[in-house]
Amino acid sequence: MEEKPNIVFDLINKLWIKFEQFIKFNLVGLVNTAITFIIFALLNKFFQINKFVAEPVGYSCGLINSFIMNKLWTFGKKHRFHVLEGIKFVIVNGIALGGTLLILMVSEDYLHIDVLWGKLIGYCFSIPVNYLGFKFWVFKD
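-> structure tokens emitted (141 positions)
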């Protein structure tokens, strides 16, 4: 007798895989955020480097980590590096970085919020931009 596919089990399994991927993305994001934030804070607060220099430097360090960890671990792409994949990754992150820089400028210069709080507000923009861009464009199945 042939077994019928279990639709409920298949659906739960697919949802679990998506949830697991989202959790991995967020864990990688925490590591990236820590790298970016620490480097930004050190450059801006300790070395007194302008926020518009400190942010891209810190972001670039987190970006390199993000590409490696998300490609290999979150989205399980074991293939060799493809230039188009790298270009897409940079485009998505460029959009997130641009939004973060705009939020930093507005929060500090116009709203008079401390730059580190502005940075945290910027994460509220960059996290969904990156996840959706990676999932549906950069590392698309």
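The CA atoms of residues 53 and 85 lie 26 Å apart.
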